[in-house]
Every structure is written in C-alpha cells, then in structure tokens.
Amino acid sequence: IDGDSWVADISVIGGFDDNGADDLEDISVVPNPYIVNSSYFNESPGNLKIRFTRLPTECTINIYTISGEHVSRIYHNDPFDGNEWWDVKNERNQEVAPGLYIYVVETPSGVKKIDKFAVVR
User: Fold this and answer.
1) How much of the chain exceeds pLDDT 90, in percent?
2) Across residues 60-89, what is the average pLDDT?
3) How does DSSP classify residue 113?
4) Which of 68, 118, 111 is nearest to 96 (CA)?
5) Distance between CA atoms of 52 and 72, rounded to whole angstroms?
6) What is the pLDDT of residue 39?
7) 110 — phi, psi (to 5°)?
8) Residue 72 in contact with residue 52, Cβ under 8 Å?
9) Cα→Cα distances 24→15, 35, 78, 100, 104, Å
10) 101: which of 30, 61, 80, 86 lies 20 to 30 Å off by Cα?
11) pLDDT tens-digit profile of 19-51?
C-alpha cells in the first residue's frame, strides 16, 4: 500500500561464519547416484567428477568403500566457495568401481558428518 516502508539490514551478508558445525547437515553430493555414462545431470561431461556442496570453510573429506577400505582424501579450505570436486579416482589414480561409497566430512574441531553416495556404470 502506498506509504508503507521497509527497512532491511543486509550487513550480515558476506559476514564470516566461523561456526562450521551447523553447516554439516546441509552437505550433499551432486549428482547422487553418479551415473558415469549419463550426460543427464552430469555437471562435468567428459571429466568424471562428483561435487561435494555446502562444505564448511575448512574440512577434510574421506571416502570409503562400503566395506571400509579407504579410497580417497580431499582437503577443503576456502572461505568463499563451499564446493569441492572429486575425480572419481582412488589414491592410485584409478577410476573407482561401481557401488555404494561412504564419505566422512570432518572439521578441524572434530565434528563429523557421515553419509553415502552411489557410483553406477
């Protein structure tokens, strides 16, 4: 209605969030399931990459097979970008087998999130 006024405080936009513990619940893997030969929902056609989204500023991502074998470790430290890419390869630079994988995101303070994703060939 004419005469209404609004006041918005946008000073918190761009502010530094130093509490990473509350961010862990929002983390996801895109796409999930990851279908290697599909171009549908593949964010990196031809590059074979999976994206971890909404990561805290500093964390470590460990990826394991469903039987507990360590596959890969990714270090994330970026105050502006909450994304990290994984090339779907193990630490010996070999493409991983299709199956279910467990990932553990851990902050420097020891707070963890454990979840899963699938790779389909």
Assistant:
1) 34
2) 92
3) E
4) 118
5) 13
6) 59
7) 95, 0
8) no
9) 18, 25, 15, 21, 10
10) 80
11) 655 668 888 898 888 887 765 555 555 567 889
CB atoms within 10 A of CB 55: 26
User: Is the pTM for the entire model greater than 0.70?
Assistant: yes
Paired sense of beta strands 84-86 and 70-77, if any: unpaired
Mean pLDDT of 66-84: 91
**Per-residue pLDDT, 106:** 93
As a whole number, mean pLDDT of residues 101-113 equals: 92
- Both tokens of residue 66? 């469903």
Question: Is the distance from CB of 103 to CB of 71 less than 8 angstroms?
Answer: no
Q: Work out whether strand 34-35 and strand 112-120 pair parallel, antiparallel, or are unpaired.
A: parallel
Separation of alpha carbons 7 and 106, rounded Å: 39
Which neighbouring-strand residues pair with 29?
Answer: 52
Strand order in the sheet with 58-65: 34-35, 112-120, 99-106, 58-65, 70-77
**Cβ contacts of 14 within 8 Å, gap of 6 or more:** none
Name the residue with tokens 């994304």.
83
Rounded CA-CA distance 110/96 in Å is 27
